[in-house]
Write a sequence for this structure.
């Protein structure tokens, strides 16, 4: 590339009507400030939306859709395109009708209104929420041709909420380390889950805002639980009851579902933490390289339920050689981290991979390593390295390397 030149940029003397001629948008006035009280993305971006996979579930009421992570940048997921997972549909619950009961092993069972919760000291934290089933279709082989579908059961928002421990103190809960906190939602499924006391007292939030706004209906308006780094299923939406118990309840969602069946047919339970994982979001099957060889940016996301992402490596040859990517900014704990590899493409096919490391020293495994440990009966907790085959035309495809 010539000194001082920028990828793709044309020399200024070339006649380009967009440069040389007066355009409509400069000839007439635009839209007034009284016309759009709440803004939506401009129409040219209307393809950047959640999508579901029809054959995946029997009904869209107990189902999932996927965040368009291929088309986003930075780390914060806008609420309007953040994936949804419901077991019995999203419910409309007014703040006035909201009640949170805390009972069980407590000095005084209490019922909180929405206003009561707003009167308690609150905090702001950015966290990712990943469904344990994210990438779950890929165990047996490459299935879904899009990072939105292979890795889009994740969102990352700034939550405003009251630490769960504040509420447990308010009711005089028995906070001994062997106790459990059972949480359930106000929807028909209730989605009850048992949380060990140590986690409940650590960083769990009873949240009522996301990215500065009220939660959206589909994410649990008006109040949801935020369980940093732990599987999305525990992030109970429309939170209505918290019970302090002697033992785990062993509900449907922690026995028949959200356990990991191993090769010998036994099931692992209590696999709460989401291990470190990363994926290249661009290029990817929905984001081909359209500009030809030369300067380019390879970009993706990395996260760890154990803590901070410390390093992400990118391979162009299916894991034979690796280059260390640049982190968009220092990774937040239990939150998405953006990475970039600013690089040159020679126009030859690539086998693109990303590999994340976190501050516990954990390194994201290959698909082979994960299968050796877990077999192929699993659905949940697939955090293996993903491969995209990019051909000479820049088209990317979901593949496996062995
Ligand atoms: N009350 C209730 N809470 C729930 C669910 C539900 O169906 N009902 N789904 C759970 C599952 S499986 C996941 S992955 C997350 C998804 O959160 P989201 O819909 O905000 O993406 O919510 C969890 N909390
Ligand atoms: Mo989930």
């Amino acid at each position: 590339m010539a000194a001082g030149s920028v990828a793709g940029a044309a020399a200024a003397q070339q006649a380009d009507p967009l440069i040389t001629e007066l355009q409509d948008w400069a000839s007439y006035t635009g839209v007034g400030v009284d016309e759009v009280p709440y803004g939506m993305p401009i129409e040219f971006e209307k393809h950047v939306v959640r999508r579901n996979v029809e054959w995946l579930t029997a009904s869209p009421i107990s189902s999932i859709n996927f965040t368009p992570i291929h088309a986003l940048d930075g780390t914060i997921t806008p609420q309007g395109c953040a994936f949804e997972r419901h077991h019995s549909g999203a419910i409309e619950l007014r703040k006035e009708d909201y009640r949170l009961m805390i009972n069980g092993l407590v000095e005084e069972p209490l019922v909180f209104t929405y206003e009561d919760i707003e009167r308690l000291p609150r905090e702001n934290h950015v966290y990712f929420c990943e469904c344990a089933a994210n990438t779950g279709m890929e165990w047996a082989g490459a299935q879904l041709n899009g990072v939105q579908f292979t890795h889009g059961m994740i969102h990352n928002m700034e939550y405003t909420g009251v630490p769960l421990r504040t509420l447990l103190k308010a009711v005089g809960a028995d906070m001994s380390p062997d106790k459990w906190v059972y949480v359930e939602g106000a929807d028909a499924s209730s989605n009850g889950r048992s949380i060990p006391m140590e986690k409940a007292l650590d960083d769990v939030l009873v949240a009522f805002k996301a990215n500065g706004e009220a939660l959206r209906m589909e994410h649990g308006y008006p109040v949801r639980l935020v369980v940093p780094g732990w599987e999305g299923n525990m992030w109970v939406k429309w939170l209505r009851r918290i019970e302090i118990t002697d033992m785990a309840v062993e509900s449907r969602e922690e026995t028949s579902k959200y356990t990991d069946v191993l090769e010998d047919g036994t099931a692992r339970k209590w696999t709460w933490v989401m291990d470190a994982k990363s994926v290249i979001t661009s290029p990817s099957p929905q984001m081909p390289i359209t500009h030809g060889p030369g300067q380019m940016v390879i970009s993706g996301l990395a996260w760890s339920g154990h803590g901070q992402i410390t390093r992400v490596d990118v391979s162009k040859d299916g894991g034979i050689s690796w280059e260390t990517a640049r982190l968009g900014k220092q990774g937040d704990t239990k939150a998405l981290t953006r990475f970039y590899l600013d690089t040159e493409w020679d126009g030859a096919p690539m086998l693109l991979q990303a590999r994340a490391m976190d501050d516990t020293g954990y390194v994201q495994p290959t698909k082979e390593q994960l299968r050796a440990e877990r077999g192929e009966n699993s659905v949940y907790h697939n955090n293996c390295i993903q491969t995209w085959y990019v051909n000479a035309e820049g088209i990317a495809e979901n593949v496996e390397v062995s």
Observations:
- The helical segments are 17-20, 24-27, 114-118, 147-151, 164-170, 197-202, 367-374.
- The first strand starts at residue 63 and ends at 64.
